[in-house]
UniProtKB/TrEMBL annotation:
Organism: Salibacterium salarium
Protein name, as recorded: ABC transporter substrate-binding protein
Gene Ontology cellular component list: periplasmic space
Main location: periplasm
One Pfam family in the UniProt entry: NMT1_2
Length: 333
């Protein structure tokens, strides 16, 4: 009997050792994170840097990146568990949380902190004034989206009534705005990089103003996830945030050529000199957030712009829907 008991105990010890070994190996296992980005843009350079420089790998994370082309599709992917994390404008979380989902959407790491569009004029000028837009045709962004809301907010801040002072076109799909402009529609257009720089190089217009500089700090593009993911028992969201913070620091220290060569695989059809120029333009105006922390002042500015545009469903509580603990923790390390 004693031998049976000892044998049983030995089996238990062996089993416990095996389980302990499994737990230890799981800590070192790579966790896959499904990430949905709203579009592919040089505006998101720090994300691609984190992937190419191995910052996610250092955190034992494997990022499976999908471009979902549109805020509605991105949020649908997140809500239906097609993605663990979404990279999209913070306004989309406000729209969703206003519907009181069972698992709220939490903004946990900011990637860009200004609008990313530029005003391009078809005619070159040495002395641009916002008054120059009055009486012209302005090719803006899709109604209800953050670029359009910010664009109209900036126009109003410069004493231009979008409804009265110009011919505002907003019925062209995002993917077709650049081609519509190059085909002759509008004297002015609101464009992201690298399209603005490409058009300038091709002699199709001149960048005369930055909506990012004019609108102030905004949580323009944010990593967000369901509350269960952000506040779960594991530390995946924390490790994700740490990798992003490393990339944010890298982008502000690297040369334009280093940035361009690093993220070039994500932009096959764009010359590296254009990638470099576009990235530096964003960096110089500090569009890339320097830390993942989403400040309350920027959150309030976002809601003010949405309210001005008539698109704010209801005030969204910063303390409830923004998590800064993870970002603050990785910055203190």
């Amino acid at each position: 009997m004693k031998k049976l008991i000892l044998a049983g105990l030995s089996s238990v010890v062996v089993l416990m050792g095996a389980l302990a070994g499994c737990n230890f190996s799981q800590e070192d296992e790579t966790t896959t994170v499904e990430l949905a980005e709203v579009t592919r843009s040089i505006f998101y350079a720090p994300l691609y840097v984190a992937m190419e420089q191995g910052f996610f790998e250092e955190e034992n994370l494997n990022i499976e990146l999908t471009t979902t082309w549109g805020g509605d599709k991105t949020m649908t992917s997140l809500l239906s568990d097609g993605a663990d994390v979404a990279l999209v404008g913070a306004e989309t979380s406000i729209y969703v949380n206003a519907q009181e989902p069972a698992d709220p959407i939490i903004n946990f790491a900011m990637l860009t902190q200004t609008d990313g569009t530029f005003l391009m004029a078809k005619e070159e000028t040495d002395s641009f004034s916002w008054d120059d837009l009055k009486g012209t045709t302005f090719l803006g962004q899709r109604k209800g989206g953050m670029p359009q809301m910010t664009g109209e907010y900036v126009l109003k801040q410069n004493n231009i009534d979008p409804a009265e002072d110009l011919n505002l076109i907003q019925n062209i799909d995002f993917a077709n705005i650049a081609s519509a402009y190059s085909s002759g529609t509008g004297e002015y257009v609101q464009l992201f990089e690298p399209q603005a720089t490409l058009f300038e190089q091709e002699g199709l217009g001149q960048i005369v103003a930055s909506f990012g500089e004019e609108s102030g700090a905004l949580p323009y593009t944010v990593f967000m996830a369901k509350e269960g993911f952000v506040h779960g028992d594991d530390d995946v969201a924390e490790r994700f945030t740490r990798a992003i913070y490393k990339a944010q620091q890298w982008v502000y220290e690297a040369s334009p050529e280093e940035i361009a060569s690093t993220i070039a695989p994500y932009f096959d059809d764009t010359p590296e000199d254009v990638i470099a120029d576009s990235a530096v333009r964003y960096r110089d105006q500090e569009s890339y957030a320097k830390t993942p922390v989403l400040p309350e002042k920027a959150w309030d500015n976002l809601q003010n712009i949405m309210e001005e545009a008539g698109e704010l469903p209801e005030p969204s509580d910063y303390d409830q829907f923004v998590d800064t603990e993870l970002a603050e923790k990785v910055m203190e390390e």
